Amino acid sequence: MDALHAAGIRFAEVLQSGPPWLEKFWISVTSLADPKSIFTIFFPLAYFLDRKVGVSVLWIGLVSEWLNVVLKWLLFGERPFWWVHESGLSTKELVTLRQFPLSCETGPGSPSGHCMIMGAALWPLVTALAARHSRSPAAKLAPFGTYALLQLAVGLSRVFILAHFPHQVVGGILAGAALGWGLQARTPATRTLGFFVATALALLLTSLALHGLVTATGIDIDWSIRLATKWCSDPSWLRLDTRPFASICRVAGSALGLGLATGFPLHQGERLDPQQRVASAVLALVAIQGLHRLPQPADMTLWYGTSFLKYAAGPWLVASVLPRLVLSVTRPRGSPHAE
Length: 339
What we know:
Blueprint: H1 2-16, H2 20-32, H3 36-49, H4 51-75, H5 80-86, H6 89-92, H7 113-121, H8 123-131, H9 137-160, H10 166-183, H11 193-216, H12 223-231, H13 244-263, H14 274-292, H15 300-330
Helix pairs in contact: 2-9, 3-4, 3-14, 3-15, 4-7, 4-8, 4-13, 7-9, 7-10, 8-9, 9-10, 11-13, 13-15, 14-15
């Protein structure tokens, strides 16, 4: 593995030697492809394009993020920004690499979560866009071509900022496409609130059980947090939302949020017209961005708890509260309530 890691370091050096404008591009791409964007940007947009597609994007996103955490705990993947020092390569050879504020991910590195989660969650959106142009082969292939280029750009951006080695990126891309294809037909779009509550509990409890089991065997499952803290160039770049349990809170909260959305649907007969969908999508993006910009407590346990509540509130706002608000504001005065 050392040879594979060293080759990845050299590849990262080549990427970082590019022009300054390309540096800004890679950082923008890796920011856009953060797994949080699935929950705060792509889900609301997809939901108001097509309800089932939106639910599929969120469901596949949360399942794939949970699986990504489990794989990282089991595979113990290194990250370039600390491996280059821990391996001694930086003392044996001249290595010209820079860290960035987004470099200091604290979880293990394999497979790439950005590539795996983004690739899986966007698959139903890509296939839905392709289906809308089923009569034109070129138009049908365009969404898949865009998807492939996006995944390539995300993968290169992750190598550029020293968050991943190339083989971790490839693994994430392949796993993401496979999960998206495999889970799309299994979206629980018509399940009850009880199903999603049970799912949220299962995701949370199995993660805690796995963490406890591995720890009980004497394995330091939090080793990556220690190395990230040791080798991050700037301590302020270390973010709590990159820790594995931040992902667990995100996926468990989102599963519960899907249940709340299912348990409090629009009344039968209420439908959003195209203008109302656009208004709802814009309002949802603003509301969710505002929700996630609220300050979080400094205490770690409270931080995890409030993060869980924020991600539980998101789907409920998107699928239930905000559409009702738009309907109530745009309904002509004196018109009967649709039943």
